[in-house]
Amino acid sequence: MVSPQTRKEEELLEKQNSVFYLLTLGRKPYGSYLHIKIELDEDEKLEKEIYADNIKLENELRQLKRLYEVYQSVEIDDAQKAIQKEALLTIAKILSVFDF
Predict the structure, then answer these.
(1) pLDDT score at 91
(2) Nearest partner of 23 among 43, 42, 50, judged by Cα
(3) Using alpha carbons only, what angle is made at residue 36 by residues 5 and 94, rounded to the nearest 5 degrees?
(4) Pair 53, 31: CB distance under 8 Å
(5) Is the pTM above the cut of 0.90?
(6) Other Cβ atoms closer than 10 A to 71
(7) From residue 41, how far is each of 34, 38, 46, 99 by CA, in Å?
(8) Domain-by-domain residue ranges, the chain?
(9) Which domain of life is it from?
(10) Predicted local confidence at residue 82, as pLDDT
């Protein structure tokens, strides 16, 4: 039996189809920075920037790119849902750097 809390979490996952995010890695004279902008809808936007040396997100970004490519080629709903969950976990790893 599925608990109400689990059901609610599943529903929230379903509604996250239209989240857009932009991740920028840059360099300034005093160090590296990572900027993220997330648009949940037209009215709700989150932006955050952190400054740090040696920001290591290359693996996560490569994994997101691979997941996106695989998602486009898969036509089976169950496989697409599994890829979506993996992509959300990878995005969560990236967001953990920002302390959201």
Answers:
(1) 84
(2) 50
(3) 55
(4) yes
(5) no
(6) 15
(7) 22, 9, 10, 21
(8) 17-96
(9) Viruses
(10) 92
- Written as six digits, the tokens of 16 are 């996250």
Q: What is the DSSP letter of 41?
A: S
- CB-count exposure of residue 95 (10 Å: 0-12, 13-18, 19+): middle
| pLDDT mean for each 10 residues of the chain (100 residues) | 54 54 75 78 80 77 89 89 89 77
DSSP 3-state assignment of 49? Answer: strand
- What residues have CB less than 8 Å from 71, skipping those under 6 apart? 80, 83, 84, 87
The closest of 29, 73, 34, 72 to 50, measured between CA atoms, is: 34
Is the Cβ–Cβ distance between 44 and 21 less than 8 Å? Answer: no
Rounded (to 5) percent helix, strand, coil in the chain: 50, 25, 25
Q: Give CA–CA dist 17/67, Å, rounded.
A: 15
What the block records as the tokens of 25 is 């890695």
Tokens for 23? 């991740």
